[in-house]
Amino acid sequence: MKLHILSAILGFLCLSLSGCSTTTLAYYNTLKLALKDRTVTYTVEEIAASKADLMQIKAGERDAASLALAYIDGDKYKWVSGDKVIFTMHHGIIVKTEGLDSDIYYTGNLQHNPLATNNVLPFNWKRKVDIATIGYGIPVDSSWRIEGEETREYLGYSVPVIKVVERVSFSEYTPFIDVGLSWENTYFLHKYSKELLASKQQFSPEGDVYDMVYLSRIVREMNKQGATQ
Questions:
Q1: Comparing C-alpha atoms, which of 222, 217, 206 is closest to residue 79?
Q2: What span, in angstroms and rounded, lies between the C-alpha atoms of 193 and 98?
Q3: What is the DSSP letter of 111?
Q4: What tens-digit pLDDT sequence spans the chain (229 residues)?
Q5: Among 88, 139, 201, residue whose Cα is nearest residue 96
Q6: How many beta carbons lie within 10 A of that of residue 12, not counting itself?
Q7: Hey, CA dihedral for 95, 97, 100, 102, is it positive or negative?
Q8: Of 85, 132, 134, 144, which one's alpha carbon is 20 to 30 angstroms from that of 97?
Q9: 196 contacts 188 by C-beta, under 8 angstroms
């Protein structure tokens, strides 16, 4: 991520501290902790007490890292990593990044994002994306299906989830024969609340696969069930 962008976010949070509220201070301190050590891990108690939502991310073969929720703009959530990358998520889909070797600058047609719907899951989503080193206005088609229900373990708890699979078809973007232009992304929603708890997704045929786990959401769900009491 460009350092000035991160500084702007932290600067905004610093201004918010002018009221000296303990909630804002705790949020800011949590964000600083996540940024201080990219491999920091948290206990269930620390996650529950955090004022900033936390996420775990693993990119490719690199070590798992932590993300902190830095800013919410409508239905777009900006998460900041310890190595100064910003991920902008739209209902769990990576739609923009800042600081990667090959950033995604833009994702279109967000109003038809299947994970943004509250009712029946749409089975297709067409959008265009702008990705550094690849091109602009590249068509992307994806088909969606509900794979079924299963139980996954997070933070030592067994969590009932619904597995949703997205089959991505990326447009050819060179005059040569391109390979690796189709792949599957997976999303795990809580069986009852339908809140997204984890995902494994790739936004570019040349980019990493990002394995994301929403730590704070999982702890809140388990609190509802009394599992963390």
A1: 217
A2: 31
A3: G
A4: 444 444 444 444 443 434 444 444 444 455 555 555 545 678 899 899 888 899 999 988 878 888 999 889 999 999 998 777 899 999 999 999 999 989 999 999 999 999 998 766 778 999 999 999 888 999 999 999 999 999 999 999 999 999 999 999 988 776 655 666 899 999 999 999 999 999 999 999 888 999 999 999 999 998 887 765 5
A5: 88
A6: 11
A7: positive
A8: 144
A9: yes
Structure tokens at 161: 């989830």
For tokens 């069986």, name the residue.
191
Distance CA 215, CA 229 (A): 17
Tell me the two tokens of residue 194: 């339908």
Residue 119: C-alpha distances to residues 1, 67, 100, 103, 115 (Å): 36, 29, 34, 32, 10
Q: Which residues lie below 8 Å from residue 208, measured CB to CB, with a gap of 6+?
A: 59, 60, 62, 202
Q: Which two tokens stand for residue 40?
A: 């920091």
Strand partners for 97 = 87
Give Cα 184 to chain centroid, integer Å: 16
